[in-house]
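ERR on first pass: missing label on line 2. Operator R.T. fixed the label and resubmitted. Corrected input:
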Amino acid sequence: MAIDARPPPPQFVAKLRRALGGRSGWKGLIAQVLFVAVLCWIGYEIVDNARDNLANQRIASGFGFMSQTAGFGVSQTLIPYQESDSYTRVFLVGLVNTLLVSAVGIVIATVIGFMVALGRLSPNWLISRIAGGYVEIVRNLPLLFQILFWYLAVLGTLPAPRQSVSLLDSFFLSNRGIVVPRPVGEAGLDGFLVAVLIAVTAAIALPLYARRRLFATGKPMRVWPVVIGLLIGLPLVAVAIFGRPFSFEVPVLRGFNFAGGSRLPPEFVALTLALSTYTAAFIAEVVRAGILSVHKGQMEAGASLGLSRGQTLRLIVIPQALRVILPPLTNQYLNLTKNSSLAVAIGYPDLFSVFAGTTLSQTGQAIEVIAITMGVYLLISLVTSALMSLYAWRINRSMGA
Amino acid sequence: MSELGAVTPVFVRGEMVPQRPPPVYRSGLVGMARQRLFNSPTNILLTVVGALLLYFTVVPTVKFLLIDAVWTGANRTDCLAETVGHPVGACWPFVQAKFSQFVYGFYPTPERWRVDLTFALGALLLLPLLIPRAPAKTLNAGLFFVAFPVLAFFLLYGGGVQGFGVTWSADLASGLADSVTRAGRKLATGGPIGSVIGPVLLGLGTLLVWLSWPLVALREWIQASSQPVWLDLLLTAIATTALVFVLTGVRNGWRALATTVGAFVGIAVVIAALRLDRGGLPIVDTRMWGGLLVTLVVSVTGIVASMPVGIALALGRRSTIPLIRIFSVAFIEFWRGVPLITVMFFATYMLPLFLPGNFTIDNLVRVLIGIALFAGAYNAEVIRGGLNAIPRGQAEAASALGLSYWKTTGLIVLPQALRHVIPGLVNSFIALFKDTSLVSIVALFDLLGQLRAAFADPTWSTPTTLFTGFAFTGLIYFVFCFGMSRYSLSVEHRLNAHRRT
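pass 2 clean. output:
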């Protein structure tokens, strides 16, 4: 059965078809119209039902509740907050707490993750097995399980403040959390801070300069003694000139609790520990895959040029591995931020816990509260993925691809 | 870098490196130890550190779990150091006492055989599916993914059916017609746009009512008869079989006909065996479910339900039709951008507001809907990766043969794509299995929730109860997740057989 050759369609009609229905033409147009009709119908049903249900429960919709008085206390606040503040303030407190736990968790997770990855790639058999075992165990247990384990089993079974484990009579570990001496600023603080700032800036700038000089002239420079000297020496000099920068307020046991000092609540400690050790296992795998993705010949080429193993890693392998590592690494950071919402299980006052938890149950404004919460997490995700796309674009441009 | 020409680059070695002795090949345990543990000072140091690390983690764990453990007892006093006379490790009587709670939750004891039967059936259907050499994969997969969930629902929840295909489609059609008519009536009264759209919708609703009238009349007749379920089943079977026969064509129709008839005979057997036409098994409300049962129900349902969602979204994202593509992208990005726990709260607190007031749905079902959408968005990205990996030539060859879009996708592209991404899908299933523990935050007592509930029991409050409970639960989670990940590795290995040299 032969198929007759079809006459070419008129250009105008073909363009219209494409514009309206994509590559599928009129069929695509019909599909779009039907699809939109179904969406409209579902949307209408949702809005209509929600309006009826809210009217029945006598809940006023809208964001007016955000300015009402919250009237509940929050156990840990970084910004000033009291019970008479509004729900907007509660939202901000939660957001800051979420960002704090995410930032601390990301730093610790990255450090542990890189260490475990390098351990897993180590030529030492025992170390690589231990790192592998860590990754397998931690990755195969639910995060909520780990959070509860740290909170209930490890920190919860610590002794009461009276029998607390103490180090040098100034650090105390008990079921009230970790209590450490609190630094109190004194006269020499400003000079000290300036010295530290200068030292840190120099410690970052010097290796960069040395690296540029190495690439430009081929002359290596030994920077680390200078950097360490700067980091230790400058603050010491500042102390010698301006006097003691701060003294420590040592916590003392008074009654059933500690007085003075700063306290890290057990919720924060458990959440940070669980989040960072859990994410570290994933980061370790990401880093390992990145380093393995660099061809073995690169390492050999470095060796044949006379570079040491450390130099080869630092100058040749890591920069290439970083291209592969960074996008999934950013994903893991994002996961950690989203997972910090599990704080609600142990009562750490993060965004989700104080806003979608307490505020929702007090006001009953389910639609608004959940929409705001989802929106904030979505915004964080979208910003991060936009930054990642920008990074990928820059990499592609610099690689000339 | 123009300066490079003026100086001698330091990266070029100036002197010869002295010859090194040839490496000595040593075999056996001693050789391995010398080569990989003690070949340099740094390595010796690392080995010592590693050994110390192991000594301080593994030894106490083994001592806690096995050596110092208490194995029998009736209550907390048997697990106290004063009674036993030495430092106490794990308190296993606690796990023994709470074991049935960890597995079944508060499921009524006389009905627990239903849970056992469901577990056994699931394992029986799953095992041959996992063994590559076992025959009849299509039949097996169909039974596991379609028949088993339905059967498991009636086994676990209980209850019977009032009607079958005809009744359901009549309900659906009249519901749709009602909704459209109601919307039309409401819109017609308000607003300038509404007064235009309203009458149109009203007309559409009336048309739908007229179209669905024969079906509704048939439903009335069936419900009035003495055996509504069987009559309905018979009618549905005849209608479906005829439809399948006509659609596949008379020449190839016989095979499809046999499959359809077989499926309906199977349904009839199940209905007869569970007496679904006479009310079925007693209903066990989902509030009574708990423990491993809920964990498995949520994860298996999530896995099965998220697959079609994921495939549809992945195809939608690659569609050339603009609005469908935009919708898919927005949907996927939305669900991937929010934490699962907000999805659970969305399902628990917001979803009921979106449904008609007289329509209540079970808490477990609400959470399942949320999980299916969430996992579907993640699966969609995995499947899209597989779709992208299929060379264009495959689809082009299919359209050169004259296959339609659906046939090209369903018979050529999708099977290859899914095969490619099995490891990725298993990864997202593992993530889903672990994430099911979050249901304990929205007041469903899964394994983790039961564990927390068990800690509250004063009969068993000893210093080591917490660690024992976590050790036991952790072991269960680990066995499931580790098993899945090892299985996916073996599948990957098998599928990549042609790439190994």
